[in-house]
Design goal:
- The chain is of the alpha+beta class.
- The chain is about 30% helix and about 35% strand.
- Helix 1 packs across helix 2.
- The protein is globular and about 35 Å long.
- The N and C termini lie far apart (about 35 Å).
């Protein structure tokens, strides 16, 4: 694991190319997002945060928002920082936004991603179903998971 203080802040449009690079490194077999995809997400008013060490982006997370629900679009952390709590911190930032808006949260996660599934279960998500061959082109299955709105 690398060292340095991690700061969570709104994802910057200028980070789109770095996000795409991280996507290619982490998800090479499953149609990684392009820089334009990240810019589009930001332009469409979705909620995205980045994890930074200094000015270096080491992770990001995004939440799609509607009037009725929120959907975790992505959470990614570079390999050197995986297992250090950065993913948990990013998820909590997304959930705080959904809670602020009083929205339930939904997501899909690879059925073989035990670390992520454990993280989601620990944060109030439940299994809702399975999407067969959801991730392409690998054909990996995904669990759908949901967390009720926290209206406290």
């Amino acid at each position: 694991m690398s060292s340095g203080t991690v700061t969570i802040a709104p994802l910057r449009r200028q980070d789109a190319a770095r996000c795409a690079q991280i996507e290619r490194e982490l998800f090479p077999g499953d149609d990684p997002w392009s820089a334009n995809a990240f810019r589009s997400e930001l332009d469409n008013g979705n909620f995205y945060v980045g994890a930074y060490v200094g000015d270096a982006l080491i992770g990001y997370a995004g939440l799609g928002l509607t009037d009725f629900e929120a959907s975790v679009h992505t959470i990614a952390v570079v390999v050197d920082y995986q297992g250090s709590g950065v993913g948990k911190t990013l998820l909590r930032a997304l959930l705080a936004k959904a809670d602020e808006l009083g929205l339930p949260v939904f997501l899909e996660v690879r059925t073989d991603n035990e670390r992520a599934i454990g993280l989601y279960l620990a944060h109030g998500f439940e299994h809702l179903g399975v999407r067969r061959r959801y991730y392409q082109p690998s054909g990996a299955d995904a669990y759908t998971m949901g967390r009720p709105a926290n209206r406290d």
